[in-house]
Design a protein that fits this description.
Blueprint lengths: L11 H7 L41 E7 L2 E6 L10 E3 L3 H6 L16 H5 L4 E2 L4 E2 L8 E6 L8 E6 L2 E2 L17 E3 L6 E6 L5 E2 L4 E8 L6 E9 L9 E4 L1 E3 L15 H6 L10 E2 L8 E5 L5 E5 L2 E2 L26 E3 L2 E5 L5
Parallel strand pairs: 1-5, 12-16
Antiparallel strand pairs: 1-2, 3-10, 4-7, 6-7, 7-8, 9-10, 10-11, 12-13, 13-14, 15-21, 17-18, 18-19, 20-21
């Protein structure tokens, strides 16, 4: 945040650890899904801790039950049980060789993404597969961009680098789940990770949202998806969803938006199970289709739904105006034309 810092954490410990100067909203408390086990971290450790040193041994990754299904957690050491996340836009590193989307690059918060906001899971040696984890999906990637650290190895799962979240303090907290994040470069969505190495988004909730169109005074009421479920600054924030003109109904011609289209510009709206319709949305119109990577994308009357990267925002931050807006309606792209879905009459 220009001129100050961001984020009201729920406990003074996080604020002190990050030297945050501004408390945005007093004592905001958001309930997080709780894992099946009830282990409490040692007083000296918190899932929110920044990465400040190289690891001294191999990291272990395990799976634990949660409200999002069985998801990956740290399996040994001081941070046993802490939630692990993937970032969708990290795919660009493998696709194009660009820097990781969560790196030490400058951002409006003024804190490094890969060591403070989303501390990378590092390992000394090959990572170990704990209960519920497929050892063939574990790997590492070399990171040379972690501030204050030499070249280190970050744990990957199904090719995705794994991270903690700085607002998760205790075992069972999942405040970073489904966070549509404009602070990363480029914008991406943070998901918990299932044992198959895919995002674990939970059931998508499709709602109505009224927001300005392209930053103008004109507003529209359109279908949106609820994201950022446990994020203190924007719990259950809503973002417009779009259809693509070249996508066929009922799953025909699926995959029109893949590769860079889906990884960067127009990420698919994902769900674990049947999506849920909010007030004013036709439940019978909602469905799913299976994408080439095995994830389940929400459909509306058979048409797959997408987010738009330029709609991502966090209140008080200078990304896309810091407020809800509809910026992708009618955009013509190399993959087709994207359009919003108006409310039912």
């Amino acid at each position: 945040m220009e001129g100050s810092t961001l984020l009201a954490a729920r406990r003074p410990r996080v604020l002190a650890a990050l030297s945050l100067a501004l408390l945005v909203a007093p004592a905001i408390v958001v309930a997080s899904p709780v894992f099946a086990h009830t282990r409490v971290l040692a007083d000296s450790a918190s899932c929110a801790d920044a990465v400040t040193s190289v690891p001294t041994g191999p990291a272990t990754v395990s799976a634990a039950r949660s409200a999002f299904g069985k998801v990956l957690v740290i399996g040994s050491g001081d941070y046993t049980g802490c939630s692990l996340y993937l970032l969708t836009s990290d795919q660009l590193h493998a696709m194009t060789g660009q820097p990781f989307a969560c790196s030490d690059g400058a951002n409006a918060i003024g804190l490094a993404c890969d060591t403070v906001l989303w501390p990378a899971l590092l390992t000394q040696g090959a990572p170990i597969a704990g209960p519920g984890v497929n050892p063939t999906l574990l790997g590492t990637v070399t990171r040379t961009d972690l501030p204050g650290l030499p070249s280190v190895k970050q744990v990957t799962y199904a090719g995705y680098p794994l991270y903690r979240f700085f607002l998760d303090e205790e075992v069972g907290e999942t405040d970073g789940a489904d966070l549509f994040d404009p602070v990363t470069s480029p914008t991406g969505t943070w998901y918990l990770v299932n044992s198959r190495g895919r995002p674990a988004p939970g059931r998508a909730h499709i709602e109505l949202e009224t927001a300005p169109v392209d930053g103008t005074a004109s507003e529209a009421t359109v279908l949106s998806v609820s994201m950022d479920h446990g994020f203190v600054l924007l719990p259950d924030g809503r973002f417009p969803v779009y259809t693509l003109s070249t996508d066929g109904r009922g799953g025909r011609d699926k995959g029109a938006c893949g590769g860079l289209c889906a990884a960067l510009y127009w990420p698919p709206v994902l769900t674990s199970g049947r999506p849920v319709a909010g007030p004013g949305v036709d439940q019978n119109a909602l469905g799913t289709s299976v994408r080439p990577d095995g994830t389940h994308q929400v459909t509306y009357h058979g048409r797959p739904l997408y987010l738009f990267e330029n709609d991502a925002y966090i209140p008080t931050l200078p990304y896309n105006g810091g407020a809800a807006s509809i910026n992708g309606a009618g955009l013509s792209t190399p993959w087709g034309v994207f359009n919003t879905i108006p409310a039912l009459p």
